[in-house]
Amino acid sequence: MDLPTPFLSEATYLCLLPIILYFIHLIYMQIYKKVPKDTKAAALHENAALTRKWKIAALLLSALYIIMSSATEVLKGYGFESLYHTTAGYLLKLLLIAAGFLSCYFLICRLLKGFSFQPVSQFRKIGSTPIYLVMIPIALLSFFCIAGCYPGIVSSDSANSWSGVMGGYYDDWHPITYLYILKVIQKLFGLPYPIIIFQAVLWIVINQYALSLLEKHAPYRHVDTSYLIINLLMICSYRALGNLEKDTLWNLSVFLFSLCIFDFIKRKKAFPWYKSGLMLLSAWMTATIRHAGDAIVLITLFFLFLYTRNQKKKKQDKSQIFILVIMLSVLIVKFLLVNLLGFIILKAEPNEPYVKYSIPMSMIGAIAVKEQPADKELAVMETIMPLEKWQEYYDKYYADGISRSYGGIGETIYKLNDPDVGKDILKLNLIFLFQYPKTYLTAYFDMTSIVWEMGTPADGYEWMPISIYASALELHPELSDFYIRRNISTTFQETIVGLSDKIPIWSSICWRGGFALFTFLLSTFLLIRKKRGEEVLSLLPAFLLAVVLFLANPSQDPRYINSYQMLLCFFLLYAVYIQRAPAE
Q1: Which among 49, 116, 296, 543 would be 20 to 30 A from 331, CA to CA?
Q2: Which segments within 103-250 are labelled E, that is strand?
Q3: Confidence class for position 41, pLDDT limits 50, 70, 90
Q4: Burial classification of residue 39, based on how many CB atoms lie within 10 Å of its CB (0-12 exposed, 13-18 middle, 19 or more buried)
């Protein structure tokens, strides 16, 4: 088997990770004890004993880590089969999982006990400017990467959108807001590169904003350097800047929106006008550039509104009114851009009703492949297509083949436009869930693997995140000017990004959602432990995105979860470095 990482499954390396980190921690502790007290960057809270509930929380998080790292793949024993398929081999695998679990537990307990970091007056800046010194490599790498992407990396979705807008055709397959942005860029520039430049500039500005929040609320030694190191490790974020995708703009807006929520919660007085503007802009972008974005924004703002109601009267000031204004503005902007501009003025085509049945269709396909449905259920399935077709079109990682007109199923999918047929599909899913729970849930978590699973599946499935999509232009001769002008930056990106997809652990952090999602959960526990539970509200957009993707994830494309990697750096550092809130 051609494994995505050398020798072993990615899950094996992920089980090894906490073991390695724990041993590094033990060695560091021995060295740390010999460092003079006045030169130490941090002090351990040696006497901060954990109560039973926090030990249980650490156990649950450790178990979750093992599950999300797909320890079952370790038990299958990919790589070194001659050793693993023996009694001693199975014992070795069980020992690895147990050691990974315990090491993870000890590390989480250490984090929950906390540290006392050495404060600094301010982060290092460029001379007398407000720009942080660590922004230099971030900015240089950002512009270096987009220099190798002229006039913009175009996927099949991007090519179809750009070509359709050129011909005056609009539909709701991609949000109208994004399509109209493409139309404006076409009119003004002819090529999409200004969007690429805007994405890079926005990325730089957001990172500057994130560092300013860390300096204000977690001003401890080495935080800025740590931010730089983690940020640069997330090479996927830099690689995405060159993509002409709605997802890149949307992921950036989620990053900015989450930071604005955090800043709003931490404020000690009314928001200044420029921060209010950033919050409005990020809310509008998040709500309109990708489907279901409005639900994420409105739910987050609703909980933020409830939080402000519980604050002291003095701090409430005009917060509730401000939040209500943003919520109302989101609804108005969505109506103006989508309903009025999109469907009335531009006469955009609404999506076919069948679109919402992606996951349900895929789950029935899984049952068709792995089980033998009863005659009654089989009769319902065959009202759409024969059993062998269900089996042929099913792909456990890619729903579009069995749920889109451009997939193998073709125009047969239009049968689901009938509401009664759609209801039958949903009822059949419920029946199969109870009849074949193991098969159904396994297929469900396979389909949503990119959201929660840390490592690339051991069967070697990969979405090819390093592709520059040149093949997408072959079907669009009118876009011949869109082929990438290759240079040293292009080669650099293909090499480095290609390595990031193959090096164990790094590939999981860069291209999968599981590691970041686990980090958000860990950060949540750390903040609650430090009496800062309200700050978890700023992570709510990320958690809501996970819910949306669990309901309607069509494929394993990393662009869906790229906002996770963007958010990880800020929230992990803040949750680890910040001190316990003082008692009021």
Answers
A1: 543
A2: 115-117
A3: low
A4: exposed
State the pLDDT at residue 10. Answer: 84
Provide the 10 A C-beta neighbour count for residue 72.
13
Q: State the Cα–Cα distance between residues 356 and 509, nearest whole angstrom.
A: 30
pLDDT digits (tens, 9 = 90+) for 192-236: 999 999 999 999 999 999 999 999 999 998 999 999 999 999 999
Q: How many C-beta neighbours within 10 Å does residue 53 have? A: 9
DSSP state of 582: P
**pLDDT(580) > 60:** yes
What burial class does residue 512 get, using C-beta atoms within 10 Å of its C-beta: 0-12 exposed, 13-18 middle, 19+ buried?
A: buried
What type of residue sits at position 181?
I
CA distances, 364 to each of 359, 399, 411 (Å): 9, 11, 18
Q: How many CB atoms are located within 10 Å of the residue 140 CB?
A: 10
**Alpha helices in 77-175, H assignment, sequence order:** 81-84, 87-113, 135-147, 156-166
Alpha carbons 231 and 228: distance in angstroms, whole number:
5
Contact 214, 224 (CB under 8 A): yes
Residue partners of 482: CB distance under 8 A and separation at least 6: 151, 152, 154, 159, 162, 191, 192, 473, 476
Nearest 5°: the CA angle 177, 181, 185 is 170
Closest CA to 256 of 204, 292, 307, 214: 204
What's the first-to-final CA gap in the chain, in angstroms? 59
Rounded to 5 degrees, φ, ψ at 542 are -65, -45
Q: Which of 142, 127, 137 shows the shortest CA–CA distance to 228?
A: 137
Q: What is the DSSP string of 464-480?
A: -TT---GGGGTT-GGGG
Distance from C-alpha of 282 to C-alpha of 185, rounded to nearest angstrom: 20
Please list the residues that pair with 171 across neighbouring strands: 349
User: Which pLDDT tens digit goes with each residue over 112-170?
Assistant: 998 888 889 899 999 999 999 999 999 999 999 999 999 999 888 889 899 999 989 99
Verify cis geometry, omega within 30 degrees of 0, for the bond prior to 151: yes
Distances (CA, A) of 161 to 165, 173, 174, 246: 6, 9, 8, 10
Could you give the CA distance from residue 577 to residue 224 in angstroms, rounded to a whole number? 12
- Residues 9-19 pLDDT 10s: 788 899 999 99
Of the candidates 359, 276, 352, 267, the one whose C-alpha atom is nearest the C-alpha of residue 314 is: 267
Q: What are the Cα distances from residue 164, in Å, to 159, 170, 207, 243, 422? A: 8, 7, 34, 18, 29
> What is the rounded average pLDDT for all residues in the chain?
89
Closest alpha carbon to 563 in 280, 249, 289: 249
Q: Name the DSSP letter for residue 38.
A: G
Q: DSSP string covering 197-213, please?
A: HHHHHHHHHHHHHHHHH
Beta carbons of 457 and 519 less than 8 angstroms apart: no
What one-character DSSP code corresponds to residue 561?
G
Is the pLDDT confidence value at 489 over 60? yes
Block residue for tokens 């436009």: 417
Range 301-325 average pLDDT: 81
Rounded to two decimals, the pTM is: 0.93
